[in-house]
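User: For my dataset I need records formatted as: sequence, then structure tokens, nothing else. Please produce one.
Assistant:
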Amino acid sequence: MPATATATAAATVTDTETAAFSICKSGGGTNCVVDGDTIWYRGSKIRIADIDTPETHQPRCAAEAARGAAATRRLHQLVNAGPFSLQSINRDEDRYGRKLRILTRGGQSLGELLVEEGLARYYAGGRRSWC
């Protein structure tokens, strides 16, 4: 096994979080994807701290709504693809009471995957337009 495959396999062993995720209906839920950067997991609402995705709730234009829906579907696929890890950052919660975490699998940020696929951008603070 190549060194990189060994490192990835070793990192995967630490990925212990798992659930069957649905897409959230209004009002939240248990183990569901709210949008491209927010999930409910085991009773906690979690904001993916390293990315920002287009809004699906009150989008500013049709293009933002479509991109937000695509980001939501992709995050749904990613969290259902197998065990992952939740990494804390320097703040526990945002001003809305959501837990701030980075989701990783095998040491790679799932948010970074969304950025690479053009469905998210790295979070730089504040709300910026997707229109």
